[in-house]
C-alpha cells in the first residue's frame, strides 16, 4: 500500500501540528470564552477516546509531528489520561511532541501521569493572580487549585508556559506583576489578544486590549530584547533583561501571522477545521465510522487541504460587532 499523502495546503504550507479538542466541556466559564449558560454537546456526538487515538494516528501517518490536546478543559474528560498514554507511545515514532493546554484546575491530580506518559511541556491559562478577579472573570472561585496545579506541574518536571488573555480594565494593570511572577517561578509567559469567537454575554470590544499598547507600556518599565526564539507558532518573543524570562505576544488582531500556518484543529465531534477564523470544515467522524475509513479519510484530507483559507480576518473595531465566527474557542479547540 502507498504511504498516505502528506498534508500540504494550496499555499504550500505543510501541516505538522494538530490541536485536538478532547471535550467542549469545562469547569470554568471565562467571560471572554463562553457564556455562563454554555450549551455543551450531547455526549453521544463526541468521539470516543479510542476514535481520537485512531484519528491521531492517521494525522501522524500524514506528517503531523506535534499534537496538542485541548478543549474545553481537556482534564475534565474522564479517562483522558488513557489517550495521553496511547499517544505518548508514538513519541519518537512519528510524533515529536505531545502537549496540552489546560486551565490548571486538575493538574494536582494529573501532573505526574502526564509527565510519565511523555509530556514535557504544557500551557496553563492564567489571566490574573487576584482571587476575586479570577472568580469574577472565570465565574468560579478556583484560583487556589490552579496555583497548586501549576506548582504540581513544576514539581513533576513539566515545563510550564503561562498564557494570559490581555483584557482592558480587567488584568491590564496587573500584567507586569503577572509576568514578573511567572518569570520568578521559572515559567515563560505569553500574552494573547482577545478574539471574536462565539457569542458571550458582554461585548468583547469593551475589554479588547491591543498588545502593541501593552508592549509600549512594558518597554517603559523593562528592557525588552527581541528574541529569535520560535515555538513554530504565531507568538513573537522578547527576553526581559530585568526578570530573566521570555515573553511572547500573540496578536491575531494587530498583526496577522497566517503566512506560516502549520496547524489544523479537530473538534471533539471529529470536525476538522482548517482555520480558527473560518467556517470551513470536513467531517472526519463520518469518514472514521464509514465502511472504508482509510479511503474516506484520504478524501477528507485532500478536500481540507484544497480548502484551507489563506488567512483569518479578525477585527474588533467597534462596539456590538458580531463574532467573526459563531463557534466558541472552546468548541474549535483553543
Ligand atoms: N480550557 C483550557 C484553557 O483555558 O487553557 C483549554 C482551552 S481554552 C479555549 C484555550 C485558550 O484559549 C485559553 O488560553 C483561553 O484563554 C483562550 N481563549 C478562549 N477564548 C478566547 C478568545 N475569545 N480570544 C482569545 N483567547 C481565548
Ligand atoms: Fe474553560 Fe478554557 Fe474557555 Fe476558560 S478559556 S472557559 S478554562 S475552555
What are its keywords?
alpha/beta, TIM Barrel, 10 helices, 19% strand, globular, binds S-adenosylmethionine, binds iron/sulfur cluster
Short description:
The protein is an alpha/beta fold and 334 residues long. The protein has ten helices and twelve strands.
Strand line-up of the largest beta sheet: 7-8-9-6-5-4-3-2-1-10-11-12
Please tell me the overall pLDDT. 92
First-to-last CA distance: 35 Å
Q: Summarize the helix and strand pattern as letters.
A: EHEHEHEHHEHEHEEEEEEHHH
CATH topology: TIM Barrel
In this entry the ligands are: S-adenosylmethionine, iron/sulfur cluster
CATH architecture: Alpha-Beta Barrel
Radius of gyration: 19 Å
CATH superfamily: Aldolase class I
What general form does the structure show?
A: globular
Structural class: alpha/beta
| Count of distinct structural domains | 1
Number of helices: 10
Strand fraction: 15-25%
The amount of helix comes to: 25-40%
| Low-confidence sequence ranges | none
CATH class value? Alpha Beta
Describe the fold and architecture:
The protein has 334 residues and is of the alpha/beta class. Helix content is 29%, strand content 19%. It is built from ten helices and twelve strands. Helix 6 (175-184) links the parallel strand 5 (159-166) and strand 6 (188-193). The mean pLDDT is 92. Bound molecules: S-adenosylmethionine (SAM) and iron/sulfur cluster. S-adenosylmethionine (SAM) binds next to strand 2, strand 3, strand 5 and helix 10.
Amino acid at each position: 500500500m502507498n504511504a498516505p499523502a502528506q498534508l500540504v495546503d494550496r499555499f504550500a504550507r505543510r501541516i505538522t501540528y494538530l490541536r485536538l479538542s478532547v471535550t467542549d466541556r469545562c469547569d470554568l466559564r471565562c467571560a471572554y470564552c463562553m457564556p455562563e449558560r454554555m450549551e455543551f454537546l450531547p455526549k453521544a456526538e463526541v468521539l470516543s477516546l479510542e476514535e481520537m487515538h485512531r484519528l491521531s494516528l492517521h494525522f501522524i501517518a500524514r506528517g503531523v509531528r506535534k499534537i496538542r490536546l485541548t478543549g474545553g478543559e481537556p482534564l475534565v474528560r474522564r479517562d483522558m489520561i488513557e489517550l495521553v498514554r496511547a499517544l505518548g507511545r508514538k513519541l519518537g515514532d512519528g510524533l515529536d511532541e505531545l502537549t496540552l493546554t489546560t486551565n490548571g484546575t486538575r493538574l494536582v491530580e494529573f501532573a505526574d501521569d502526564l509527565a510519565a506518559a511523555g509530556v514535557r511541556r504544557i500551557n496553563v491559562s492564567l489571566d490574573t493572580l487576584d482571587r476575586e478577579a479570577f472568580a469574577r472573570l472565570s465565574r468560579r472561585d478556583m484560583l487556589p487549585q490552579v496555583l497548586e496545579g501549576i506548582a504540581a506541574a513544576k514539581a513533576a518536571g513539566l515545563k510550564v508556559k503561562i498564557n494570559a488573555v490581555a483584557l482592558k480594565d480587567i488584568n491590564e494593570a496587573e500584567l507586569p506583576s503577572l509576568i514578573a511572577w511567572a518569570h520568578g517561578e521559572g515559567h515563560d509567559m505569553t500574552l494573547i489578544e482577545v478574539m471574536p469567537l462565539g457569542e458571550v454575554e458582554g461585548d468583547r470590544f469593551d475589554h479588547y486590549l491591543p498588545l502593541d499598547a501593552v508592549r509600549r507600556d512594558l518597554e517603559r518599565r523593562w528592557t525588552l530584547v527581541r528574541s529569535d526564539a520560535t515555538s513554530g507558532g504565531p507568538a513573537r518573543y522578547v527576553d526581559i533583561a530585568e526578570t530573566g524570562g521570555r515573553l511572547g505576544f500573540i496578536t491575531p488582531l494587530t498583526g496577522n501571522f497566517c503566512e506560516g500556518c502549520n496547524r489544523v484543529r479537530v473538534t471533539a465531534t471529529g470536525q476538522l477545521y482548517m482555520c480558527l477564523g473560518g467556517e470551513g470544515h470536513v467531517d472526519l467522524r463520518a469518514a472514521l465510522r464509514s465502511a472504508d475509513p482509510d479511503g474516506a479519510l484520504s478524501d477528507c484530507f485532500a478536500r481540507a487541504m484544497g480548502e484551507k483559507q489563506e488567512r483569518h480576518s479578525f477585527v474588533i473595531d467597534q462596539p456590538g460587532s458580531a463574532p467573526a465566527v459563531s463557534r466558541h474557542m472552546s468548541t474549535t479547540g483553543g
